Fold:
Amino acid sequence: MAAELFPEVKISLDELRTLQVKRLGAALRQAYEGQAPYRAKCMAVGVHPDDFKNLDDLRRFPFTSKDDLRDAYPFGMLAIPREQCVRLHASSGTTGRPTVVGYSARDIDTWSDLMARSLYAGGARPGDIIHNAFGYGLFTGGLGAHYGAERLGCTVVPMSGGFGERQVQLISEFGARVVLMTPSYMLAIADEFERQGVDPRATAMRVGIFGAEPWTESMRAEIERRLGIEAADIYGLSEVMGPGVACEFIETKDGPTIWEDHFYPEIVDPDSGAPVPDGQPGELVFTTLTKEAMPVIRYRTRDLTRLLPGSVTAMRRMAKITGRSDDMLIVRGVNLFPSQVEEQILRDPALSGHYVIELSRTGALDDLLVRVEARALLDRDAAGRSAAELARRLKGMCGLSATVDIAGPGAVERSMGKARRVIDKRPKE
Structure:
């Protein structure tokens, strides 16, 4: 149990709520006084930190969005002088101006503690060798996991992504008990184990902690079956901190526990922004409680999930991310998430978790193509049966007719980080 090294996870519900009110009040004041863009938003709706008295009052304050961070590029959202930042991380900026996140020395210390707590919850233990294949650099995954693993007292192999053959070599020869990476990349590494004829069960690997992209229970089962490990889900995002905002307990694997002593979660309707009760699906929103350099108030993550009661602790859990509101596909008027397609693919033992959804348009109609790899080479009849059955399940699940292309092993492009699941070739409106 994480309480052995991290007793704060056993905080009572009353103590937690009292702490949250105290820290929320301080975070609101810090953002209002230190971040001119957020202060302007508050003034526009006539709200002030003095108006915050209890948790329900938080909904009176305006949201923060990714666009706010982009508009403030590069340092406009810092609440401390830039000279007091010890590190900067940033998004890739592939869809526009990147978002920049700053960290004070205290922020790095807090982040390391929370990542250590997360890794321990996920099954890592002091003294373990941890193979870290999250990407290093401006992406928060690699360094966030690295500092947390060192804080926990582990030996870190800072592998980063790529070089699949070497990934297998080092996991095998260095004796890593724990591996960290995206779940889709773990499937690519599983393929590499098979290509080399190495049995992953013969290695020291026992635990995988995976995140940075949505993944289904079917993919968890696939990873655990192929590699003989326990797979836990870790959650985070750069704008809020990085990895380690929440993590599953390996004993329960019932959804990541949100570290509510540092991050206050809400669920809102993705269209109206209105609060949604715990247990109901909606968009996840976070307010940081202890960040110094760049607090964020009511940050709209675009991740779709539900808040669930705590199980191991009083802190609430989040259900698996079903997708992102900005990743939702609208095909012939039907809402479709890649995770729904993945769930249907993995029901067929002949098919792998490597797939891509391709959208195009003929006249006024959308065309939906699902290209998925077979686990092994299939003859024409077997491939035809798998394709027809998948198309039938997709039709039953969402009402959409899809063309299914069963490709051979290795035909779908691999990613070292987040998998690219959708290729949208439809003309822009």
